[in-house]
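Please, is this right?
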Amino acid sequence: MIQTIQISQSSVFLVSGGAKGITAECVIRIAQQQPCKFILLGRSSIMTDEPDWAKDCFNESELKKRIMNNILAQGQKPTPMELQRVFKTIVSSREIHKTLLAIEEAGGQADYIDVDVTDALALQQKLATVVERMGPITGIIHGAGVLADKLIEKKSEQDFERVYATKVKGFQNLLSCVSPGQLDYLVLFSSVAGFYGNIGQSDYAIANEILNKSAHLVKQHHPSCHVVAINWGPWDSGMVTSELKKAFAKRNIEIIPIPVGTNMLVKELDSANQDTAQVVIGTPLEPMLGELNPELRTYRIRRKLTVDANPFLQDHVIGGYPVLPATCAVGWIINTCEQLYPGYKFFSYTNFKFFKGIIFNHTLAREYILDLKEIAKTNDGSIEFEAKIRTKKEESKIPYHEHYRVQIKLVREIPTAPIYDNANVEEDYKITEQIPSSLYQSEESSLFHGPSFWGVKQVLNLTPTKITAACAWSSISDRQQGQFTIQNFNPYIADLKTHPTGILIYYFHQEELLPAQSEKFEQFAMIPPGETFYVSTELKSKVNKNVIVDIIAHNREGQIYSRWLGWKGTIYPIGTKGI
């Protein structure tokens, strides 16, 4: 059993970027919660004593005037650059002294070292004497960071190096001064930019995501250490101007008030949260959306598929061979469209047609081609694509063999979810007692799927024209998802939503069903893994081998998560299912 730890008076925190700004506010709050010791690191020099002419002057214009007079009194010509340098030194020094004093007033101890955290040698040399006085370091808080926000094509190598080095090399240098085995705490100040991404911050996002992954790695090797990478959103600090606040408001990005943020940090350091190596405190960084370029473009993406790269395929085997679910093919298309237009969200697809499945046997092509063609960009903020997944046919008059075709619609804002008026989640005991408790891979059910797709928990009611089932899907790992990852569309839950249709057809007709096409699919909200939801399938027609249904996924109150209108399937007699 891992022993939990608590901050005590003997705890010694090494804090980068800890003498000013948000990190300083956090350190002060820790000291107020539990007085301890802090070694604060910063690049700013600190004045042991202000010159007499600067004391008691806190008005910016007046202080700059006194700086200029002092420079003139020394017989030098004041330049704007020199005036600003002296001003920043005085103001920075005051802020550092204020932080040190606040820690002491809270009952803690603090020392300040002016050093660049990216300079490993200087850091080790200056830190050695302070450690002798303060005691061994038991915790690290890495809060240092700089920005150089620009679109990636305008960034220089120097921009990247400065941003990356402060976060990543700075972290490496801190660890070089302290053995991870002696640490009780490791706190990394990361950013929602690393978790969600953000326009103009590719370097900052990369650096912070490295901190996120480092936190998990350190936790694996040192489970007794309280490790956490906190992915902060923007704070309500001096860096966030009124103009920037307005810009954040337009993007629905919430600002973290300083008292709220510092209290959340203290909460994360509680022993109850010792097993959580990464947290996100902030809203997604939705990009600002400008006017759409009216030009309609085309794209071609190529992908090689293998069973080894997609372990989930072993749970979707038909006729002895793994077969790609149609929902996964659609998911590939949706994810690609969203990546082309960050900030736009998938809402619907129409005119889906299934021509021939992708089978992982001797017919598997060397590569699969996704062709996208923009067909509409409308004033209401939507983009429509025509998509085809094809393979190239060698030595044939027909150059391509088509597998799937569909039209995808992205929007700026997802419409409000409607209510399904015919929702009925009451259990019909006369019917449900006849349904086997285990619906998957059973001789009494048509559901062949393996665990990656399991989710129908109970059939609640069933008639020849309608079925309602309670469902919940357990998440699968990124490794299992392989090349078909869950983003704003979950292909595994989407496949699951079709399972009650198969149960209905099997129960009343003793036949099996495979998808063929669908008129329209709309998604109003994602369904979280593990959450119970309900699938209601209404049979619209069954003629010969063709079945048409509407499939509605909703909550207990009838609010719709997603719906298929005009979903069409093809009947196969039991035991002769084709592909």
